[in-house]
Amino acid sequence: MAVTSRLVPWLLALAAGAAAAGEGRASAWWEQLQGERLQIHGFASVTAVKTSANRFFGDSPDLSWNFIEVAVNASYQLNSRVLFAGQVLARNAGDMYDGTPVLDYGLADVTLDETPTRRLGLRLGRLKNPVGLYNETRDVPFTRPSIFLPQVIYFDKVRNMLLSTDGIMVYGDLYSGHGDLSFTLSAGQPVVDENVEWTLLGADFPGRLRARGLSWVGGLWYSALQERLRLGVSDIISSFSYEPALAPDFGAGRVTFNYLVLSAQYNTEHWTLTSEYGRLPMAYRDFGASFPYHNLPGEGYYLQGTYRVLPTLELMLRYEEGFADRKDRDGTRASSLVGGAVPPGDYFARIWSLGVRWDLNPHVMLRAQYERHQGTYTIAARENDPAALVKDWDLFALQLAVRF
Amino acid sequence: MIVHPGVEVTAITTNEARLYLTMRLKTWPNGVPVKVFVLPDEDPLHRRFATAVLGLYPYQLRRVWDRQLFSGTGQAPTAVASEAEMIRRVAATPGALGYVGSVPADAPVRSLEVR
């Protein structure tokens, strides 16, 4: 947390600087610094989280300040066909992430063909997975609909399972009077971390979990009526194998998941209605008799409405539900598999969220969010002792974010 | 819309305007790179231009730019503070594309028709 406490004064200085830059006034020195082809941007946020019970992004029952995001990116348009882009992200998220800077993405984008009716290209490097409406920019406060994304689709406890791929992507667009059709298909190695092991296996065991074979990510999107309507289907297929430690805990098992997300969004001047449905069948094989799970067909969905009172003031209301096993919606069967060591409430979540966003100027944003939870499916085992989980709980969060 | 005097195109479709402004079409038909200039999101002229010419709300444009900018899949247009700066930057930048309320008679830029 030392990294965090050193960052806060910088954040506040940055916020003050951005506010001082004034509304709508592009600073001349910055324009000069950025050449014709080079763009440098970044953002920073600091969030206070308070929960009635259960730890979420740190010691939230006592008020946690351990949710901080800082990123800087650069892109360079070499010529009309080739773009280089990269972003470094430092993210402190409770016990899950300690704020160590990582390469969030780093890629070369090659446009093979580009006309007013179509586009085809390739991306190579570390790529954000275009899964659902928000995954690609899930860590950018300004692009999210609320401080926390709908957790039943965009789990923060296991964000790296979906986050990015080291590999290659083919993308294409078709533009017509009837709407735009876009597709992406990528293959590569998922970027895994300890949180994936925590969530897939329930703890950080002595053995190692590694990506097994290629991971595939695909998406098909349709937008129509001046992009008022957006419909999408995206899917990610990954497999991990467990290499037991010297003193074996489980067998050399493998986990495979196939995450399918259906997305729909409708935009009007004041309203945006969004809904997504995700299905996450997880198959555990060869972990041996001591491992409790075999198949967990996870499911989650939400309906969200945002209303722009003013261009700079937005309200959000959302309801979401998620289940570790869609055939065991009260969690009793899964809980009995582990002899009740994990309560039934940890296998589902029903969440009401209410949020407000205020853009003080184009560089500074303030947000507040209240959530009413039933179940603890969306919180991290890494941050909580399962025996101490409280099924019914509330969350309140405040966020300050700046960008340039 | 206005363009740098060296741009050969005299008219584009609404769809092309939308693709240029969302930075998905990056070159003019003759291969010269397009350089897009925009006014701030909250500028009344920007709002009028986005809704009347492109058929998009300013927040939709911002969403597209931010998604590209923060995922490494594209860039965002260059923001200018005023119409006077818009004319000055478009006139000085080969391949430039922008918009103003009305083009002054002696402005060193050319009008581009959107149909």
Q: What key attributes describe this structure?
A:
heterodimer; A: 404 residues; mainly beta; Porin; 16-stranded antiparallel beta barrel; globular; B: 115 residues; alpha/beta; D-Maltodextrin-Binding Protein, domain 2; 5-stranded mixed sheet; two-stranded parallel sheet; 4 helices; 7 strands
Structural overview:
The complex is a heterodimer of chains A (404) and B (115). Chain A has 404 residues and is mostly beta strands. Chain A has one domain: Porin (Beta Barrel). Helices cover 11% and strands 53% of the residues of chain A. Chain A contains five helices and 18 strands. In chain A, strands 1-2-3-5-6-7-8-10-11-12-13-14-15-16-17-18 form a 16-stranded antiparallel beta barrel. Chain A is globular. Chain B is of the alpha/beta class. Chain B has a single domain (2-114), classed as D-Maltodextrin-Binding Protein, domain 2. Chain B has helices at residues 14-21, 44-54, 58-69, 83-92, and strands spanning 2-3, 11-12, 35-38, 78-79, 96-98, 110-111, 113-114. A five-stranded mixed beta sheet of chain B has the order 4-3-5-1-6, covered by helices on one side. A two-stranded parallel sheet of chain B has the order 2-7. The radius of gyration of chain B is 13 Å and the shape is globular. The A-B interface holds A 23-26, 31, 36, 39, 41, 43, 71, 73, 75, 77, 79-80, 83, 85-87, 105-107, 109, 111, 114-116, 119, 123, 127-128, 130, 136-137, 140, 142-143, 173, 175, 177, 226-227, 267, 269, 308, 311-312, 362 and B 13, 15-16, 18-19, 24-27, 31, 33, 35, 40-43, 54-60, 63, 66-67, 69-76, 78-81, 93.
Which class of secondary structure composition applies to the elements of chain A?
mainly beta
Number of β-strand runs of chain B: 7
Oligomerization state: heterodimer
Main β sheet profile of chain B: 5 strands, mixed
Element-by-element helix/strand order of chain A: HHEEEEEEHEEHEEEEEEEHEEE
Number of discrete helical segments of chain A = 5
The run of helices and strands of chain B is EEHEHHEHEEE
What gap, in angstroms, lies between the N and C termini of chain A? 25 Å
- How are the strands of the biggest sheet of chain A laid out side by side? 1-2-3-5-6-7-8-10-11-12-13-14-15-16-17-18
Please state the structural category of chain B. alpha/beta
Largest sheet of chain A: 16 strands, antiparallel, barrel
For the record, the count of structural domains of chain B works out to 1
Helix content estimate of chain B: 25-40%
CATH fold node name of chain A = Porin
Helix fraction bin of chain A: 10-25%
